[in-house]
Amino acid sequence: MVPRRLQPGDEVRVISPSRSMAILKEKQVDIARNRLEALGFHVTFGKHVHTHDEFFSTSIEERIEDLHTAFLDQNVKGIFTAIGGYNVNQLLKYIDFNIIKNNPKVIIGYSDITALSVSIYQKTGLVTYSGPHFSSFGMKHGFEYTMDSFIQAVTNDAPYEVTPSELWSDDPWYLDQEDRHFHEQKEYLVLQEGNAEGTLIGGNLCTLNLLHGTEFMPSLKGSILFIEDDHESHALTFDRDLQSVLHLPGAEDIQAILIGRFQKDSQVTEEALRKIISSKREISYIPVIANVNFGHVSPIATIPVGGKATIEAKQESCFIQIEQS
Fold first, then answer.
1. Catalytic residue among 111, 135, 233, 298
2. Catalytic option among 228, 233, 266, 298
3. Residue 10: predicted pLDDT
4. Any catalytic annotation for residue 111?
5. Annotation marks residue 270 as catalytic
6. In the chain, N or C: fewer CB atoms in 10 Å?
7. What is the residue range of 61's domain?
């Protein structure tokens, strides 16, 4: 079930199902709102987006209220998560998935939001989006690729490619918008060659692993698994988290794997990635592409959880196309 495309004039709602929007700088919020309004959207905010406790989140009841209200409000056509965090999986048992199924609309975010987006897809069949938070739109510089991919993913039905950006950055831009360092982006790193088609399932790897063995984890049968992790990960944790996924029922039918670019602090090198992937006999026959533009470095592509993709991986070139129908 693909949600209605966003159009100029649509109301989009910002909610905080994980961390509170209170941690965002006012200037960042202004830039984000102005950027979305420049696209023709009317930006509104959930009742509890600024409420926070000692964990810079808020109660399950308040977060669920904002989530349900956003889906029930017929004026709201799209939902943006304010930012990620650690605790969105607290909400899953309390979500009325029938509300979401009966009121399908675009919902987008990444990182910890993976638990929400994957669960919604599993419980309702609604395609959700791994892509920029509302806070991401507050980035002053180097946002063009992220914006272009977002527009392609949620405003029209045409297929689109996830191509390498010209530049990438690992700066904590939210701390200093002007102290930015951009690096030339090479072609994606092909760890294993091959062609594949399948359903995109994934997001933040350590968050995805929180769903193992629950009713909220979709089957990996026929999937293209896309995974990324942040600076808290390193080669050893990535290795075991990936192995955990490969033990799941249906994992033997994963068609391809896409790995988002790691942050520098994770120290997951190209050599480490090659060794990790080559050690997994279960996936020795499928294409694997790394350094793809999604995850915790910028810019990022918007990827539909539950969408269809075609992969062609060769050492000299890669092709990642996402279907919208």
1. 111
2. 228
3. 98
4. yes
5. no
6. C
7. 11-138
